[in-house]
Specification:
Blueprint lengths: L1 H15 L2 E2 L8 E3 L5 H12 L4 E3 L5 E3 L15 E3 L6 E2 L16 H4 L7 H16 L17 H12 L4 H5 L4 H4 L27 H11 L13 H5 L12
Antiparallel strand pairs: 1-6, 2-5, 3-4
Length: 246
């Protein structure tokens, strides 16, 4: 949980200085090496016992990564959010396409304008990568395998949260691509019949699962204005329950 706690603290610090990250994803949350000797040891291991390699027809070699560094000894001061080259001022709504596809908040997909709360959505969705080893939303077009699809993404969000609020839909520049004039999805068949916070979680049970859902559900809401702030999330009981899971 310390990775999440420090990520929230770093986000809150950025918000304090009126900055939005805009590219929050697992690849941009770094845990620094505690001991530089790890690199020397891994280099020796690779020299003595090289990992499998794939030799491509075009001459390229694909190497299997060594990414197991063992448990951390210190929980403080090790996490950093990177790639702030895309950061923007967050006091007023910004337009445009930001964030990695599966972590995009609905207001980003609809181009309704986004502020700090889009980062909160992204971090909430990202927790499934940390906990379950997979994304929360399987936003892949069933008609085109392995291709991300905004419409499918919105359908999964609808299944999880219910229909989108008319105020949100009505103010999106891209709304007409996905919604009818009445504010309903043009392709309702894309909406999964059974999809919930409970059904997507296998790592928690009982009271712990309930506490986690109570923590994450305020992060993943249709209306940006209704989402918890980073400061509020830092005070949530689940985050202080223990430091053994994340």
């Amino acid at each position: 949980m310390f990775v999440l706690s420090l990520s929230l603290y770093l986000l809150w610090s950025g918000f304090h200085f009126h900055l939005r990250a805009t590219d929050l994803k697992p690849d941009n949350i770094m845990v620094r090496l505690e001991d530089p000797e790890l690199l020397s040891r891994y280099a020796r291991d690779e020299f003595e016992n090289p990992l499998p390699q794939k030799h491509c027809d075009d001459g390229r070699i694909i190497y299997l990564s060594r990414n197991t560094y063992g448990p951390l000894k210190d929980i403080l001061g090790l996490v950093e959010i990177t790639d702030f080259d895309l950061a923007v001022h967050g006091d007023s709504p910004q337009d445009g396409c930001i964030l990695a596809e599966v972590y995009r908040a609905p207001e980003v997909i609809l181009d309704r304008g986004y502020t700090y709360s889009a980062d909160i959505w992204s971090l909430g969705v990202m927790l499934w990568d940390f906990l379950e080893g997979r994304t929360l939303f399987e936003a892949v077009d069933p008609r085109v395998v392995e291709e991300y699809d905004d419409e499918t993404h919105l359908a999964y969000i609808t299944s999880l949260l219910g229909p989108a609020p008319k105020d949100l839909v009505g103010r999106g520049k891209r709304t007409s691509m996905f919604y009818t004039a009445a504010g309903t999805l043009k392709n309702p068949d894309l909406v999964p019949s059974t999809f919930s916070f409970e059904s997507t979680l296998s790592k928690f049970n009982g009271e712990e699962k309930k506490m986690f859902i109570n923590f994450v559900s305020p992060m993943i809401k249709w209306n940006p204005e209704e989402r918890s702030t980073a400061k509020e999330l830092l005070q949530d009981p689940w985050l202080h329950n223990d430091y053994t899971q994340i």
